[in-house]
Amino acid sequence: MIHALPEDLPARALDLPAVPDLDVLVDKLAGQIAPGSVMVGHSLGAVVAMHLAERYQTLVAGLVLVTAPVGTEDPDAAAAREARAAGLSSKAYEEIALDGMELVYFDDRGLDPQVRAERLRAARGYGPARFAAHSVALGARPDRSSFPSQARCPVLIVGASDDQVVPTAAQRAWAVANDACGGGGPVSYVEIRETGHMLPVEAPEELAREIYAWVREAVR
After folding, report:
1. Are residues 211 and 151 in the same domain?
2. Alpha helices, DSSP H only, in the chain?
3. Do 116 and 57 share a structural domain?
4. Contact between residue 158 and residue 196 where contact means Cβ atoms under 8 Å apart
5. Rounded to an integer, what distance in angstroms lies between the CA atom of residue 153 and that of residue 50?
6. Cα 130 from chain centre
7. Residue at a domain's end among 137, 160, 179
8. Predicted structure pTM score
9. What is the spatial distance between Cα 137 and Cα 18, in angstroms, rounded to a whole number?
């Protein structure tokens, strides 16, 4: 998605360290972020982005939250997630990365051999140590039901039309509960058609266009 952004909106990917505690994780990340930046987070990245914006309120000038988990996780589910991710061999980790791809991509994209190969390449770069640590962090996330309307910066919520991980209806309800408008207000909501939870890799150009337009209208 970064490569789809116009040249006058430079961006770079942040390196999320293998840290299981959200406070420590964002403290380590804060040094990578220039004051006045717009932070874009997808899924776990959105959880991290909200936590960082709350902890460092003057650092971030805008937030883009793509298919973001909102509520806390059930303790039993969090414990099961942590146990599943702990001590994985490389083979077991890669099997998990490819498991259930039909649930995270739109329609039958998850069955496409090229998509599966790209997913495996990305998973290998991410690695089992980060997967294990971030599984703990995700399971301990705070409730963010009212975060967008309380944030100290403009927020863009981006939903996928067919998200089976963070249900589309829940994303719409979250946006409505936080007084999201179509653009220009403190909280905005857009929904990208024919996408699932992996929206950034399914529709990078469209996501980039939405981010660019929102930054120009709401942030600058």
Report:
1. yes
2. 22-30, 44-55, 75-85, 90-98, 101-104, 113-126, 128-139, 147-150, 168-177, 199-202, 204-214
3. no
4. no
5. 11
6. 15
7. 137
8. 0.95
9. 10
Sheet holding 187-192, edge to edge: 37-42, 60-66, 155-160, 187-192
Judge whether 32 and 144 are in contact, CB under 8 Å: no
One digit per residue, pLDDT tens: the chain, 220 residues?
Answer: 888 998 899 899 999 999 999 999 999 999 999 999 999 999 999 999 999 999 999 999 999 999 999 999 999 999 999 999 999 999 999 999 999 999 999 999 999 999 999 999 999 999 999 999 999 999 999 999 999 999 999 999 999 999 999 999 999 999 999 999 876 679 999 999 999 999 999 999 999 999 999 999 998 7
> What is the number of domains present in the chain?
2
